[in-house]
């Protein structure tokens, strides 16, 4: 009862021998993650994080979650990138898709909204209108504490909350998650007296979902964070230094994707067959894209939601440029059961499916697509989990984190920095005439 990986459909592009030939390199990359012997060793706090979260830390998060759940019908998670996507991935995957549409009294959990992940004036304005008559709270997340997008959103939402419920009540409804000592958010949280959680120095944003960055919003959404972390800890153990390459699933996945990349497969498409997994793919895109896309190298991580995208991107995948491979996340057993009903008239011709589970149709779409795409020259890696629950999402999270670290080392990059994200910020600050950017402002304006 664990995550599994099926590598039998690589379209003849990489053989088992070729994979095994890389086992030593992959094992050495895995060891380096545990020993901190390669680039980025300051950012390896995530490696043994699942097994090291203490009872006290769980309780602290659960208690803060209870306060927010008690005071608020809506909780806004303010953050961007690694300070946003992990929580949303887990919350979307593990909560009822329609619960948020229920009237407040019937709803089991607060509605979770997200802000600070864009700078859209309409988005913020519409959110403020919506929150005007709601009992809401805020989880403000920023490791640096200085990121522009969440800072703007927080300023607006804090003003609204203070206007609505007053300063004292606001303090109960705002939690800040940031650096232990540095950054504007730390200064603000300390001066206002907000409840705070610390993002450890040695864990980068995109690896932080199992810190309070992810765990607090996830707990507020009513999800069992202990089970989530247990799942992650299982894969931590299943990939430690004592485990040989043949059993180290993230290492095998990392080798295959690197071998495919070396053979011209420059784009990896993460495929899901359940809309609840859409944001897991967004999280995965950030994890791999930001970790590997540097030094003019790196697989481009893309994602599709099937079967919806089979009716749009399916054409490209089947017959477009052969530079892609697919990694499918497959869920063996859905949580619910719905049968295709019988219809006397059968005008839609669907009676041949009557009495079958909807998931059987989904599974045949999945199998049929895999066979068609492999026939079309698209290698396929299949990652299977038994069902969608906390434990297996936890397993998937650690599986991908570990794979990403190993894969980055195999590629020859530092998977734990992101120097390239600064370029847009400097231009934006120069264009906005931020104090300190006077020279840059002159220079950029002369180019316009
Ligand atoms: O993975 C990363 O480091 C980034 O995506 C950051 O999480 C993102 O830029 C947000 O940064 P911060 O948490 O400092 O506001």
UniProtKB/TrEMBL annotation:
One of its GO terms (molecular function) is monosaccharide binding. Its main location: cytoplasm. Pathway: Carbohydrate biosynthesis; gluconeogenesis; Carbohydrate degradation; glycolysis; D-glyceraldehyde 3-phosphate and glycerone phosphate from D-glucose: step 2/4. It is found in: Cytoplasm. CDD domains: SIS_PGI_1 (cd05015), SIS_PGI_2 (cd05016). GO terms for biological process: gluconeogenesis; glucose 6-phosphate metabolic process; glycolytic process. Keywords: Cytoplasm, Gluconeogenesis, Glycolysis, Isomerase. It comes from the Bacteria. PROSITE patterns: P_GLUCOSE_ISOMERASE_1, P_GLUCOSE_ISOMERASE_2, P_GLUCOSE_ISOMERASE_3. SUPFAM superfamilies: SIS domain (SSF53697). It catalyses: alpha-D-glucose 6-phosphate = beta-D-fructose 6-phosphate. It holds the Pfam family PGI. The active site is at 290 (proton donor), 425. The keyword Cytoplasm applies. Its EC number is 5.3.1.9. Belongs to the GPI family. Catalyzes the reversible isomerization of glucose-6-phosphate to fructose-6-phosphate. PANTHER family: GLUCOSE-6-PHOSPHATE ISOMERASE. This is Glucose-6-phosphate isomerase. It comes from Fermentimonas caenicola.
């Amino acid at each position: 009862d664990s995550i599994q990986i099926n590598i039998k459909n690589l379209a003849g592009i990489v053989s088992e021998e070729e994979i095994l030939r890389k086992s030593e390199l992959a094992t050495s990359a895995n060891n380096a993650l545990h020993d901190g012997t390669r680039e980025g060793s300051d950012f390896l706090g995530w490696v043994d994080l699942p097994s090291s979260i203490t009872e006290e830390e769980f309780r602290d998060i659960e208690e803060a979650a209870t306060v927010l759940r008690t005071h608020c019908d809506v909780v806004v998670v303010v953050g961007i990138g690694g300070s946003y996507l992990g929580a949303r991935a887990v919350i979307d995957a593990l909560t009822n898709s329609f619960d948020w549409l229920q009237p407040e009294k019937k709803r089991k959990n607060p509605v979770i909204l997200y802000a600070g992940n864009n700078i859209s004036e309409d988005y913020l304005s519409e959110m403020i209108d919506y929150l005007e008559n709601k009992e809401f709270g805020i989880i403000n997340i920023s490791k640096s504490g200085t990121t522009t997008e969440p800072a703007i959103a927080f300023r607006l939402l804090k003003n609204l909350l203070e206007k609505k419920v007053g300063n004292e009540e606001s303090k109960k409804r705002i939690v800040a998650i940031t650096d232990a000592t540095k950054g504007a958010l730390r200064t603000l949280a300390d001066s206002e007296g907000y409840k705070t959680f610390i993002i450890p120095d040695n864990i980068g944003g995109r690896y932080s979902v199992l810190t309070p960055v992810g765990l607090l919003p996830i707990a507020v959404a009513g999800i069992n964070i202990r089970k989530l972390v247990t799942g992650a800890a299982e894969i931590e153990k299943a990939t430690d230094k004592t485990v040989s390459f043949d059993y180290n699933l993230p290492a095998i996945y990392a080798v295959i994707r690197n071998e495919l990349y070396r053979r011209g497969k420059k784009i990896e498409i993460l495929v899901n067959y359940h809309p609840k997994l859409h944001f897991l793919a967004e999280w995965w895109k950030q994890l791999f894209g930001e970790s590997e896309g540097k030094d003019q190298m790196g697989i481009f991580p893309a994602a599709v939601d099937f079967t919806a995208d089979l009716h749009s991107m399916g054409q490209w995948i089947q017959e477009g440029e052969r530079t892609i491979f697919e990694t499918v996340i497959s869920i063996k057993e859905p949580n619910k059961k719905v049968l295709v009903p019988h219809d006397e008239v059968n005008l839609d011709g669907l009676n041949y499916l009557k009495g079958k589970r909807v998931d059987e149709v989904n599974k045949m779409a999945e199998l049929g697509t895999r066979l068609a795409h492999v026939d079309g020259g698209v290698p396929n890696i299949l990652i299977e989990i038994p069902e969608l629950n906390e434990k297996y999402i936890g397993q998937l999270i650690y599986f991908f984190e570990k794979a990403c670290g190993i894969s980055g080392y195999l590629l020859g990059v530092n998977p734990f920095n992101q120097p390239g994200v600064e370029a847009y910020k400097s231009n934006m600050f120069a264009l906005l005439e931020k104090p300190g950017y006077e020279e840059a402002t002159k220079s950029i304006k002369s180019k316009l």
